[in-house]
Amino acid sequence: MQATSVERPVEHTSARLLDGRGLALQVRARVAAEVAEHIAHGGKVPGLAVVLVGADPASQVYVQHKITACEEAGIRSFSHRLCAQTSEAELLALLDRLNADPQVHGILVQLPLPAQINVQRVLARIQPGKDVDGFHPENLGRLAAGFPALRPCTPKGCMRLLGSAQIDCRGKLAVVIGASTIVGRPMALELLHAEATVVVAHKNTRDLPNLVRQADILVVATGVPGLVKGEWIKPGAVVLDVGINRLADGTLTGDVCFAEARTRASWITPVPGGVGPMTIACLLENTLEAAQNGCFAAV
Ligand code: NAD
Question: Are 173 and 211 a contacting pair, CB within 8 Å?
Fold first, then answer.
């Protein structure tokens, strides 16, 4: 007798959420406790200087979140708001003063900067030990070479999220879409340190869907809303969506089509509430590290 083929029921899966909001609260509580301990042992109150040039609305919101987070953790913040016409020389002079100020342990220049200012010259002017964003070439070089360093906050936060779900990167194929100096490149280095096999894609990458289909771990940081379609996701993949895009109706959305992707992935970050809160938590952690001045102690 011939066996009749039985149709398998369609599996209805839903990825688990990588809860950045919850994890960030834990990190921030730990940083607050460590700040208090640092001060109790005679350390100075950690200080973070936040520099904003111009009045970009999104930047103003980010800066305010960072300042509030500092206050809650017992970190003193020094806010420097400069007008959009500020010259590069004026900004560099401010950075020189902040580099020399013993009350300032961390310096953050909110990006983007107005067109008349060269970003690379600005980032390179921050003293590496105060570079809590981890964008100074020395810190990026240290990250590449595996030396202790102040590490860029967003990739660091992504690694924490993976760790919180005990996701082992070893041997996995990790695809990072986006190759910026602040997210994509350092993210690729972090994943390489975690022994993933890493591919970095960017706007000139050919056949992105086919590449994504092979990814066990996918990190997307392009600023293109909904770039990655759900059907591109390999079943069971881990998806970290770094993108933060404000749509015309005011809602925030990521670079991944979340609802579709969630039916295929095993873990996924929501937007908002995924990577974003971890970026701020890691900034606080870096500021404490800079105040403790332990980040370069090992070499
Ligand atoms: P960026 O503009 O500097 O870099 C974008 C990268 O994406 C580039 O490498 C570019 O080649 C690539 N890209 C652009 N279009 C592409 C396409 N169609 N296909 C493939 N690659 C493409 O941006 P960024 O500063 O790295 O930020 C990226 C996104 O991440 C933005 O939405 C930003 O708001 C967000 N972001 C979020 C956080 C956070 O804390 N969650 C932090 C930083 C940036």
Answer: no
